């Protein structure tokens, strides 16, 4: 699926994979986020993704030309999950809207694990 925007100079088309990678990069910049998680439905385990695989922990859909983002994260041990997720949502929403020019209608965060920062 692709995001489409009409401008005075023509059409802009953005692939959702590009948006997912950008959202994942924005997420790992946030305090309290260790990284993005990949969830295996088959065995129920989650694993920390490498920096080059950030898009795999993010699902982006477009409905009525608005973005919906679902993120799977691993949080740092000892932080307030609520505060971290609120900061994550605010940061990703702002950065993705600035990057794409599209409205982010919804962000859902699934905390898949906790890791001790070393």
Supply the key terms.
two-stranded antiparallel sheet, 118 residues, Alpha-Beta Plaits, 5-stranded mixed beta sheet
Account of the protein in words:
- By secondary structure, this protein is an alpha+beta fold.
- The protein has a single domain, classed as 2-Layer Sandwich (Alpha-Beta Plaits).
- The chain contains 2 helices and 7 strands; from the N terminus they run E-E-H-E-E-E-E-H-E.
- The strands form 2 sheets. Strands 3, 4, 5, 6 and 7 form a 5-stranded mixed β-sheet that branches. Strands 1-2 form a two-stranded antiparallel sheet.
- The chain is elongated.
- About 4% of the residues have low confidence.
Number of strands: 7
- What ranges have pLDDT less than 50 throughout 5 or more consecutive residues? 41-45
Question: Average pLDDT value?
Answer: 83
Please report which band the strand proportion falls in: under 5%, 5-15%, 15-25%, 25-35%, 35-45% or over 45%: 35-45%
- Counted up, domains total 1
Name the helicity range: 25-40%
Largest sheet: 5 strands, mixed
Query: Kindly, what is the distance between the CA atoms of the first and last residues, rounded to a whole number of angstroms?
Result: 38 Å
Question: Which structural class matches the secondary elements?
Answer: alpha+beta
Tally of helical segments: 2
Give the overall shape, derived from the CA principal axes: elongated
């Amino acid at each position: 699926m692709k995001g489409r925007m009409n401008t005075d100079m023509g059409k802009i088309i953005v692939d959702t994979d590009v948006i997912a990678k950008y959202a994942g990069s924005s997420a790992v910049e946030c305090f309290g986020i260790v990284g993005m998680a990949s969830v295996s439905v088959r065995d129920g385990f989650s694993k920390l993704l490498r920096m080059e695989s950030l898009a795999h922990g993010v699902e982006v859909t477009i409905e009525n030309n608005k973005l919906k983002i679902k993120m799977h994260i691993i949080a740092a041990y000892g932080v307030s999950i609520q505060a971290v997720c609120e900061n994550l949502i605010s940061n990703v929403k702002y950065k993705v809207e600035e990057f794409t020019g599209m409205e982010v209608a919804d962000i859902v965060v699934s905390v898949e694990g906790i890791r001790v920062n070393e």
